[in-house]
From TrEMBL:
GO molecular function: ATP binding
Name of a matching Pfam family: ABC_tran
Protein name according to UniProt: ABC transporter ATP-binding protein
Keywords per UniProt: ATP-binding, Nucleotide-binding, Transport
Family annotation (SUPFAM superfamilies): P-loop containing nucleoside triphosphate hydrolases
Cross-referenced InterPro entries: AAA+_ATPase, ABC_transporter-like_ATP-bd, ABC_transporter-like_CS, ABC_transpr_LolD-like, MacB-like_ATP-bd, P-loop_NTPase
CDD domains found in the cross-reference section: ABC_MJ0796_LolCDE_FtsE (cd03255)
Domain ABC transporter: 18-242
Length: 243
């Protein structure tokens, strides 16, 4: 017998997407990028998304995180219907529950690493002194404790990507979305960044959904979903992650 009290499992998955449709309209041309996509992600999962160019991977990330609107279906994050919220509520919900490692989400060049990383905390009202302390701690966790005062231009590509990861994780979001987090890195730096994401997932239970083109990376993830033509066509969960 143990005297610990079991915590009841939350009644809903962290992320539940059901029948999601997304249509891009450019003039008279329509492209259906998601055609009834279903995906459930539980707390603590590290999920890779792979698929051919144009299959809808980035659209999946944008729509399931609420960065972009959907044209049908349902997306629930932490039990809340993302698209039943007003834009302002969704923005607030995103700031509190999600982190992003997107190449397009560039670091601010005139800010130091610490200033870049503390921004998400300042945006949700954390006191500046605490925000700085947590930013410096997070930079230490990604191996950049000795670079907190450096600006992005004074850092290597891999170091910049690690700053981006620290910024995405500093507010301890429920889910981190990463779009090709190793896309512009050489293979040694890509390995470092993937090791870091796997460690944060394994040791801290951080939920991460990441898009990758790289089969070698995909094969080492505990769960891999494959997309084709706006749908999931395979979902492979492995008993244990390799490496
Ligand atoms: N803003 C947009 N306006 C119009 N069409 C778009 C837009 N964004 C994406 N598309 C189209 O939607 C489809 C899915 O695009 P998406 O970027 O999600 O694919 P992807 O799998 O991420 O591709 P890649 O691996 O090349 O990055 C493609 O046919 C693309 O041309």
């Amino acid at each position: 017998m143990t005297d610990s009290v079991a915590t009841p499992a939350p009644p809903h998955p962290l992320l539940a997407a059901t029948g999601v449709r997304k249509v891009y309209r450019t003039g008279s041309v329509e492209v259906t990028a998601l055609r009834g996509l279903d995906l459930t992600v539980e707390r603590g999962e590290l999920v890779g998304v792979m698929g051919p160019s144009g299959s809808g991977k980035t659209t999946l990330l944008n729509c399931l995180s609420g960065l972009d609107d959907i044209d049908g279906g349902l997306v629930e994050v932490d039990g809340r219907d993302l698209f039943a919220m007003s834009d302002a509520e969704r923005t607030e919900h995103r700031a509190r529950t999600m982190g992003f490692v997107f190449q397009a989400f560039n670091l601010i060049p005139v800010f130091s690493a610490a200033e870049n990383v503390e921004l998400p905390l300042l945006l949700v009202g954390t006191a500046p002194r605490e925000a700085r302390a947590r930013a410096v701690e997070m930079l230490g966790r990604v191996g950049l404790g000795h670079r907190v005062g450096h600006r992005p231009s004074e850092l290597s590509g891999g170091e910049q990507q690690r700053v981006t990861i620290a910024r995405a994780l500093v507010a301890r979001p429920a889910v981190v979305w990463a779009d090709e987090p190793t896309g512009n890195l050489d293979s040694a730096m890509a390995d470092q960044v993937m090791d870091l994401l796997r460690t944060l997932n394994r040791d801290e239970g951080q939920t991460i959904v990441l898009v990758t083109h790289d089969e070698a990376i995909g094969r080492r993830l505990p769960r891999l979903v494959r997309m084709r033509d706006g749908r999931l066509v395979a979902d492979t969960a492995r008993a244990a992650a390799v490496g």
